[in-house]
Sequence to fold (1563 residues):
Amino acid sequence: MVKEAEVREPLILGKDVTYHKITEEVCAPVEGRANKLWWFIFTMSLLLGLWGLGSITYTIGRGIGVWGLNTTVGWAWDITNFVWWVGIGHAGTLISAVLLLFRQKWRMAINRAAEAMTIFAVMMAALFPGIHMGRIWMSYWVLPIPNQFGSLWVNFNSPLLWDVFAISTYFSVSLVFWYIGLIPDFATIRDRATGPIAKKIYSILSFGWTGNAKAWIRFEEVSLVLAGLATPLVFSVHSIVSMDFATSVIPGWHTTIFPPYFVAGAIFSGFAMVQTLLLISRKVLNFERYITIQHIELMNVVIVVTGSMVGTAYLSELFISWYSGVEYESYAFLNRATGPYAWSYWIMMTCNVITPQFFWFKKLRRSLTVSFILSIFVNIGMWFERFVIIVTSLHRDYIPSNWSWFHPTWVDIGVFVGTIGLFFTLFLLFTRFFPVLALNELKSILKVSGESYRDGNKPEKENEELAA
Amino acid sequence: MSNSRTYWNSLEQYNNDPEFVKNAQREFAEDLPVDEFLSKEEASQSSTTRRDFLKFVGFSVAAATVAACETPVTKSIPYVVKPEEIVPGVANYYASTFFDGVDFANVLVKTREGRPIHIEGNKLSPINKGGLHARVNSSVLSLYDSGRLQGPTLKGESASWEKVDSAVASKLDSVRANGGTVRFLTSSYISPSGKKAIGKLKDSLGENADFKSVTYDAYSYAGMRYANEESFGKAMIPQYHFDKAKVIVSFGADFLTNWLSPIEFAKQYSERRNPSKDWMSRHYQFESNFSVTGTNADVRGAVKSSQLGLSVIALYNELAKKAGAATVSMKKFDDDNNVSDKIKTAANELWSNKGNSLVVSGSNDKDTQVVINAINDLLGSYGKTIDPKTEVYLKQSDDKAFVELVNELKSGSVDVLFINGTNPVYSAPASLGFDKALSKAGMAVSFADRLEETASSCTVNATPHHYLESWNDFNPKKGLYSISQPTIRPLFNTRQMEDSMLLWAGEKDTYYDFIRKNWEKDLLSKQSKYSYFDSFWNSAVHDGLIEVESSAGSDSEENSSMTFNADVAKSASAVSNASKSSNWDVELYMETSMGVGNHANNPWLQELPHPVSKVTWDNYIAMNPEDMMDENGNEIYPIKIAEKYPAKTAKVTVNGKTVELPVIALPGQRKGTVSIALGYGRTKAGKVILQGDQKAGGQKTIGANVFPFVEVVNGTMQYVASGASIEPTGTEYPIGSTQIHDTMMGRKIVNETSLKTYNKHGKSVWNPDIEIANAYGKKTPVQKLDMWNDHDLKIGHHWGMTIDLNACIGCGACVIGCNSENNVPVVGKDEVRRTRTMSWLRIDRYFSSNMTKPKAKEEGVGKIDMYAEMEVPSEYPEAVYQPVMCQHCNHAPCETVCPVAATTHSNEGLNQMTYNRCIGTRYCANNCPYKVRRFNWFNYKADYKFTGVNPSQDDLGKMVLNPDVTVRARGVMEKCSFCVQRIQDGKLNAKKEGRPVKDGEVTTACATACPTNAIQFGDLNDDNSQVNEISNSDRSYNLLQEIGTKPNVFYMTKVRNVDEERVSEAVKSHGGSSHGHEGEGSQGHGEKEHNGHEA
Fold:
């Protein structure tokens, strides 16, 4: 491979791109005023978010009984939403950390937004284990902190406790990683800021970044170290979440395949969510030049690979349930496919196994519309996957006299839709106040020299000026 | 205590000395040097300035104010003079007696700090022998019913006793003076002293008055009494001995939960249902509804209720042929599920066990009962399984007298009508028109604890005490006298009925003195143990009862000469003629919880699931699922009912009366018949009967009253109606059922076998251990496999429980016992619909299905179809019950998953729940394979949704709470604790006495309440304990033992006394389980052969 640039598509499109132009374009949403579309979506999201907060307040005020749960089905939408959001929160760190380690430069256009999405998704996810507790005001008891209760300590055998550690670690590492990456970009905004308040805030946020070579060296090193730390976390978090189910005795939960299958599923759903968000924001924020069809295609490749892994896992589960000969296990899976909740099983199968297979075709892989629609399908499918695992396993377990149903109430719906609202509210705020693309890193993959800083069309002239 | 004495301190005061008077005005005896102090220099030179002073004042005021801001203190007031027998924290037990005209039981009342909180059976009782019925142990809650009247009423308004007494007295005086008719209408009344008290009133009215007592029970047994009068010359009810009968045939008599004296019969019956004893009785049940007794029968024949009489005649004819007696003619009856064959088999067995067999009928028709008497006479049951010498006085309803009374009332000739313990406006047949008749009474005086349907139409309601507040005596059967004693001072301004009677009769004695005098006079001489009355009385009060030998004399002579001499042919032809074939028969039955509706305002009972249908809070039309579909197999009424799948209602019309009720699928209900429970549809019982969302204003009373359907035929009340019409309305109606799924799905949940298999084969055939093979094919029983370290339970106690599925009849007394002991909240119908009952102990009921795994294998049915068919119960299935509470697993799945270690294992084998530590993740409940954990979804003790139903929300209802058990907070998990407070109490008592805990000393509330001793509790480490013995027996198995949870609850395999072999499915499918868990589940009862046998 000699002529790399000719063989590969450029990562940033457009002939007249200069370093300055990148700065201008990336900073534009932060420095400019929001358009009507932004305000419209923001208001809608905020309203949904407020409805969600209202539903949560009502739940905490009156009791978990306002949800549709019952004695047989003790978890339903709450934990479904939790696992769904955690899964979505996997893509960002994977993109920024794993792809960094693998030197995949195309990640630079999407990692910032993907990481932000991760942070917000994990925030939404972390909400659910909290509010699903009967006594949320005692939730700090899950932390192994010294207390006045004598020898009372947490139960290290409980997968829920492992969750607490896994998610808090993942959240903090992701947050630090994201923030470190933001520092040079914040400095750029600080340097360009005109308002005194904005200048003050961004100068605090940028930690006195000067942009000298030493700082850049340290920046690179810290990024690498954090990427190294974050990479195993990407795999551990969802493995541990899956152990909530895998270590139990409930048929349909008690499955050793869960850790890898959950991680694949998480990456699958995370990439789908990133896809959805990027397809919208590249349009709204005019980032078509940075987030290119090539990016979309590469993401789709990841989706088809992980989607196929998930599909394989589904089929292995079915096979094992038959092969094991355990009657409860085989009934649990038979019931998923043919029982009262068969519709949710088939939604899951269609959305997660069949739809990603369209991406084997290059034409579909590179089609924005198809990508968008399929990414939505995957998001829906992955929500149903968790619903199927949780609700259909619980609703008919060992003792038939207890078999029951689950029906969501308006509060269940409110909390779920509310987190979607909050998530978008946070994401939209992010697009207004944070550089949505890693602008300083992007400059490193621009095939243009710094000579074109002032006037992209006339590098010679600039040279002359400099010479003079 | 007016007292004009004054005391003086000194002579000066006494003399009114001027000096003294002057000084007396002054506060201080000496002059204080105020001026001197103020004039001092130092005072003005103080460094404390005015500002400092104000600061101090400000601080002091603020400090005082802040100090006053404390959290509100709820004062508990100590005894000024502590009653000798009350030690705070220590329970006192008093023997007493429950009788409400329906159920009789000798009880022990547990009181704490002077308030009754729990009711147990009295083990000394020859009737209930320590067992209870749900309607009895729930009665402690009705003491604290806020719907009770707090004093007497006059014309529906509360009034003082003086006013009420004078109103009654003036009326009675006018009767005394001018003569008149006085009627005392009562439910079965068995108080010997009370009868005398009423007699006093009668005597006081003099010769002019026409005074008569009329006994009327809402659910009448008059037919039996009339039949016995015709057969033997005496209207009476004899003592039945189900424990002496090797073959029992019952025609619609639900003798285990409702008929006659159910607790006693359940006890007797269960004694002979243990397969390891020398013999086990065989029980045939012929009925149209699927009663609790029917679910326990070995052979059940579903017969249309209008034709039940014909089946009785059929049995008579079969037996007559054998006995060489004349057969009687009869109409043919529809032979749906081989009833004639079953009758033939029953006849053969009855005949071969002549003298050891018993035939009973639940019919209130005199002629049917005459034929039953004839059958028992042919079988020689009298003197063996039926003891006519021991007369039972519990049911004394005289339907003819009641009808006569209604006619008298209608004619306006009754001047004073007393109504005691019965509610005829609600319960009398509509055709009699009692409510209109009542308004024609000169004065109606009722003795009701609330202004119910009847009392509210009476002039006076002389509100009586609750039985837990009263003295009374009872004579339930010949030779047995029992006592009820007050366990609390009357809560309200009430007065016992008998006291009122004595007062109105002009007697000076209180009823207590009256009873004592009466006992001294009548009973002291009948026994020889005590020669002084006081010791006799004290022992009777202590024990709650005495048994006296019936005095030799005319009585016994009369009994011994009892010979059957009725005209069977005449009665049989009357029965045969009365049976009409009709499209729809309606059977009205008493339900285990509601009975005749006396306890409608008792939320514990309302929420107690009906044993067979598992429906709570409502009555309904029970219909065979096949009848619920039209010709094309489309559902007219939904068969499956759940939260989002409400029932649909239908209009039932019987003799021009129409009632609209939801239709519920009940397999086993005879096709072409429906059954509806009595006791619902009360309109004036209290707030509990109103269900629905209060805020939405959609509150309705529960159920519908079907007493108006009752007809008076040939002088007796008939609870069966033929020729009914049932019209679907299409209206939806939400139903709260605690069990949505009816079948066992081929799993070994209730292990079941037949007596033949049990006797012939070893355990491995009918209760095989579940084994798992390793890679080399070596099989190990699952109990021996373990991935965890064992808890060290060898030292000290190891509590365990055994549940005999053969003894359990499904009645639900244990559920109420548990609710009462453990302060389990009542959650109301809407929450039951959402599968959120809080009850720690549930009784699962499974119906058998036509599809089984071996059958599917044989017929090549695919798995999907097999499971789909397994979900559907048979048309006339067998049923099994299984009480399930926390299994206290030694390797509990719940314990490992709790993030905060709120549920842990004790070193005594208990799975403990620490409410304080629980944060409510519900992970434990999800991971519980038995689903016995209960989550506090709401703050049941304060949330508005439960105001109407949960007793702990009203100040009065709160008094029933057991102070030894926490009322759980919102958001925490709770579950059966094996009554840890009782364990602790028993251990402490033993410790104080310096001895080990004795077997049987510590027991749980459920085990105590059980009328059949199905539940046993004790120490598994005690080699001689009963639980140890039972849990090691061959019948013992753990529920879901293949999961390896190692429960401390052991179930005993159910053994049915049927003739065919019933091999465990695991054995049947491949001669012992191969690898994995394949096929270890077992439908258990070889359903296939059985149905083949039936078909």
Observations:
- The two ends of chain B are 89 Å apart (CA to CA).
- Chain B touches chain A through 71 residues (CB under 8 Å).
- Chain B has 37 helices and 46 strands.
